[in-house]
């Protein structure tokens, strides 16, 4: 999705804005642009393709300023092109504006503005806002008031930042459903779609509420709520280390992020309270009376939720319903009393998950979120939150966030199991001890990297890839297929191993690689049978297990419900190396955005 960076302060900011855009490249984009206020005029520069192209243009122009806005565009309305890229301007060229989101009533507004004589240059919904603001300024003398009135006329989702050469030194912004965060530094104020854009300059951040409008000058930041009343928003200190947003010598962020997993899981475990049986996100009273859970998420986070269903139902013995957020929000769900709604999201900004959460909240459910970003929209809407501590995840394909989500959800399963008396204290302590050993076991699992690479080299030319598993490892098969699809653009599917014979076996052909996820468990023999069924039809079985076995990728032994936390890294390496052998653009796969902030 689009990336926004704005700066207003005491420093020249062209470099800061370009640096910020580079840090947001992971969000996915097709063009980039910048607007600088130079000598009471707005200079707009745009380039199709990479931020580097824009950087060269800016350098060549020699333009600089202490106030500016910049943008990476991910096309929604109109093809990727110079004219459609942001910033957009009004008829006079005095106003420049960047936008992330979708303006639903833009056509209606555009027709009114055309009738009033406005001339449009692009096909975008965004340009309408610049002209609307121009129109508002004909009636209203104050830039910020006119901007606030403009936002009232917009339907849809947006994060907006605007400048006007008629009001030098003022940057205005608004947030409704799309992410926008401010960075407070000694140099000045940043506005951005995500923290990495300014993390190397400050770790002090303000997250805005939906409906907020913001006025920034060199020395001040003012926030107004949805009713345009002046308000204050908390300044958060971000604990992320800037090195987490750097590649650190690895060829790709994805590879680095897989290698970060032992440390990230360790950090996540360390933030759990010393006595997890007493307080873990949920107050004890709440945890005791829960009769069931709805867990809702998208993509990889949805797969983490599916794994959690098996773990929670097994240990805590309470029912769990898991659903994709994009489906959940439209179902006429008859919410059950004393059920808890759990939202799982790395970014905390996924529009589908947020919409499902709001629906559950409106029906009186208590909300627990499992998120990676403090202050994100999902966290702000939740009654309780537990954080994954994996720092910024830059690669579009989620890896370390998945493992940390599984970690938090496993902890939740153990807590519920204990407080609801589904397991004894002694059982809890044994399980918890094994759980705390996870970072060490993950470190050992990473040693399988070169073995996985060898396997990937043998199979990467296959047109199709299959993953199978049972029980808690079935959703892991889905995740393995998603990861591979995302970054290799190859056909990949995950199946419940027992389901293969009910149809999917028809696609098994000579040489097709089938990854079989087979931890030692009561279903182990059944997994072997599934492997025999597919290899009898010519499949090349890649056996991933935690018990000694010939020609297998063997991760350290744990109980079968912890196995997905270790085997996930094998699947992540597998996807990574296949995509790398195919020469794909791993960190920024085609058509994908890191944070999907539109429904
Ligand atoms: O930020 P979220 O966890 O809410 O994002 C959910 C999905 O969009 C995300 O997991 C997506 O599927 C990733 N590209 C997976 O690699």
The side-by-side strand order for the widest beta sheet comes to 3-2-4-1-10-9-11-15
Characterize the quaternary organization of these chains: single chain
Low-confidence stretches: none
Number of strands: 25
Largest sheet: 8 strands, antiparallel
Mean pLDDT: 93
What's the architecture of the largest domain in CATH terms? Answer: 4-Layer Sandwich
Shape: globular
Bound chemical compounds: 5-amino-5-deoxy-1-O-phosphono-D-mannitol
Strand content: 15-25%
Radius of gyration: 25 Å
Q: What name does CATH use for the topology of the largest domain?
A: Glutamine Phosphoribosylpyrophosphate, subunit 1, domain 1
What is the total domain count?
Answer: 3
> Please, what is the CATH homologous superfamily of the largest domain?
Aminohydrolase, N-terminal nucleophile (Ntn) domain
Level-1 CATH class name of the largest domain: Alpha Beta
Helix content: 25-40%
Distance between the termini: 12 Å
| Computed structural class | alpha/beta
Counted by DSSP, the helix tally is 19
Note down, in words, how this protein is organized:
The protein has 599 residues and is of the alpha/beta class. The protein folds into three domains: 3-238, Glutamine Phosphoribosylpyrophosphate, subunit 1, domain 1; 246-446, Rossmann fold (3-Layer(aba) Sandwich); 447-585, Glucose-6-phosphate isomerase like protein, domain 1 (Rossmann fold, 3-Layer(aba) Sandwich), CATH 3.40.50.10490. The protein contains 19 helices and 25 strands. The protein has an eight-stranded antiparallel β-sheet with strand order 3-2-4-1-10-9-11-15, covered by helices on one side. Strands 5-6-7-8-12-13-14 form a seven-stranded antiparallel β-sheet. The protein has a five-stranded parallel β-sheet with strand order 17-16-18-19-20, sandwiched between helices. Strand 7 (156-164) and strand 8 (171-176) form a beta hairpin. Helix 7 (261-270) runs antiparallel to helix 15 (438-446). The radius of gyration is 25 Å and the shape is globular. It starts with a strand and ends in an 18-residue tail after the last helix. 55% of the residues are buried. The mean pLDDT is 93. The structure holds 5-amino-5-deoxy-1-O-phosphono-D-mannitol (M6R). The site of 5-amino-5-deoxy-1-O-phosphono-D-mannitol (M6R) has 16 residues, from helix 9.
């Amino acid at each position: 999705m689009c990336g926004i960076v704005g700066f207003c302060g005491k420093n020249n900011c062209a470099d800061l804005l370009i640096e910020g855009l580079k840090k947001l490249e992971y969000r996915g984009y097709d063009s980039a642009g910048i607007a600088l206020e130079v000598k009471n005029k707005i200079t707009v520069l745009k380039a199709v393709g990479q931020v580097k192209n824009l950087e060269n243009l800016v350098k060549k122009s020699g333009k600089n300023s202490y106030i500016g806005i910049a943008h990476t565009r991910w096309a929604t309305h109109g093809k990727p092109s110079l004219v459609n890229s942001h910033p957009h301007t009004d008829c006079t060229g005095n106003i420049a504006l960047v936008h992330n989101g979708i303006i639903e009533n833009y056509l209606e507004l555009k027709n009114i503005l055309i009738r009033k004589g406005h001339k449009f240059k692009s096909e975008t919904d965004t340009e309408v806002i610049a002209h609307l603001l121009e129109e508002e300024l004909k009636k209203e003398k104050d830039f910020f008031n006119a901007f606030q009135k403009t936002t009232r006329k917009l339907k849809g989702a947006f994060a907006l930042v605007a400048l006007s050469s008629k009001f030098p030194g003022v940057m205005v912004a608004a947030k409704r459903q799309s992410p926008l965060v401010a960075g407070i530094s000694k140099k000045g104020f940043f506005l951005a779609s995500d923290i990495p854009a300014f993390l190397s300059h400050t770790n002090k951040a303000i997250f805005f509420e939906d409906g907020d409008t913001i006025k920034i000058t060199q020395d001040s930041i003012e926030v107004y709520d949805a009713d345009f009343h002046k308000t204050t928003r908390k300044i958060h200190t971000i604990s992320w280390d800037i090195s987490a947003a750097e590649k650190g010598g690895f060829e790709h962020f994805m590879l680095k992020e897989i290698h970060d997993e032992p440390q990230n899981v360790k950090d996540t475990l360390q933030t759990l309270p010393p006595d997890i049986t007493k307080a873990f996100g949920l107050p004890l009273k709440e945890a005791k009376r829960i009769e069931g859970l709805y867990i809702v998420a998208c993509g990889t986070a949805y797969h983490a939720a599916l794994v959690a269903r098996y773990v929670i139902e097994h240990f805590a013995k309470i029912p769990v319903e898991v659903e994709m957020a994009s489906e959940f929000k439209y179902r006429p769900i008859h919410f059950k009393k004393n059920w808890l709604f759990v939202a799982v999201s790395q970014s905390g900004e996924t529009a589908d998950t947020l919409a499902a959460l709001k629906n559950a909240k409106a029906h009186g459910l208590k909300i627990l979120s499992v998120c990676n970003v403090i202050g994100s929209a999902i966290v702000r809407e939740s009654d309780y939150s537990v954080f994954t501590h994996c720092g910024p995840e830059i690669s579009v394909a989620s890896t370390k966030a998945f493992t940390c989500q599984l970690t938090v959800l496993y902890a939740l399963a153990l807590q519920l199991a204990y407080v609801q008396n589904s397991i004894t204290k002694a059982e809890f302590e044994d399980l918890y001890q094994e759980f705390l050993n996870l970072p060490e076991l993950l470190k050992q699992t990473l040693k399988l990297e070169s073995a996985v690479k060898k396997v990937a080299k043998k199979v990467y030319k296959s047109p199709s890839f299959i993953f199978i598993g049972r029980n808690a490892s079935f959703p892991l098969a889905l995740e393995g297929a998603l990861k591979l699809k995302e970054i290799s653009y190859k056909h990949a599917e995950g199946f419940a191993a027992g389901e293969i014979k009910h149809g999917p076996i028809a696609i098994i052909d000579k040489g097709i690689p089938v990854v079989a996820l087979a931890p030692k468990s009561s279903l182990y023999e059944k997994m072997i049978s599934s492997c025999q069924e597919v290899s009898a039809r010519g499949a090349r079985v890649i056996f991933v297990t935690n018990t000694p076995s010939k020609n297998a990728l063997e991760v350290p032994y744990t109980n079968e419900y912890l196995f997905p936390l270790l085997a996930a890294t094998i699947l992540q390496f597998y996807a990574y190396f296949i995509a790398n052998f195919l020469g794909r653009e791993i960190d920024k796969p085609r058509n994908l955005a890191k944070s999907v902030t539109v429904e």
